[in-house]
Each structure stands twice: as C-alpha cells, then as structure tokens.
Write a structure and sequence with these properties.
The chain has about 120 residues and is mainly alpha-helical. The chain has 3 helices and no strands. The termini are far apart. The mean pLDDT is about 85.
Length: about 120
C-alpha cells in the first residue's frame, strides 16, 4: 500500500512538472470579471469545505465524549425564564413620561400661538 502511494505521488509530480516544462505558451487575455468569478468560486469551495470539516469534527467529538462519559453541560448554570417587574417603579415611570409629554405639547401650542400673532 505504501509503495503504491509513493508511485502515485511520483507519477503525479512527473505529470505536473512535464506540463510546466513542455507546455505551450498561450497569449490570452483574462478579463478582470473572470478573475473575480474565480476568486468567488475558490472562496465558496473553501467555505463549504470548512463547514463540512466543522460538522464532522462536532460529530466525532460528540461520539468520543459519549464513549468516555463526558458531559459538556455538567458545570453550566441554567437560568430560569422568569421576568420580575416592579409595578410601582413602572407606574411612576409611565406617569413621568406622560407629564413630560404634556409639558412639551403645552409649550409647542404656546409657541405656535405666538408665531401666528
């Protein structure tokens, strides 16, 4: 098996070096839009490969943790979904807001009547 891998690697290296050594020079124009498309394609492939590796890593980590009996959530604290509201403070804030709005509207009405005269 190791010998086959070495032979394959040598053959691949020979083919690639032959392409560079005996390749025909091309006189072609590469449009900038083609390069941006190529960059986007490469970025897409890199992101997709990264996602696949991350998914497989998580699955493998989960299986290993299950076999070893490790619980990741053992030391985590769980918060309750209760919301405590002090109604007295809330009512005071609402009253203050209403009073401020009433003062502002009274001042605006007074300014409008002055500007009309």
């Amino acid at each position: 098996m190791k010998k086959a891998t070495k032979v394959t690697a040598i053959a691949l290296a020979a083919v690639i070096s032959g392409m560079f050594l005996f390749g025909v020079n091309g006189s072609a124009y590469i449009d900038p839009s083609v390069m941006t498309y190529l960059i986007q394609a490469i970025a897409g492939v890199v992101i997709a490969v990264g996602a696949v590796v991350a998914i497989h890593f998580r699955r493998a980590k989960k299986k290993i943790n299950e076999k070893l009996g490790i619980d990741e959530n053992r030391n985590k604290e769980v918060e309750t979904d209760e919301i405590v509201v002090d109604t007295a403070d809330a009512e005071e804030k609402v009253e203050e807001t209403v009073e401020e709005a009433a003062k502002k509207t009274a001042e605006e009405v007074a300014e409008e009547s002055k500007s009309e005269n």
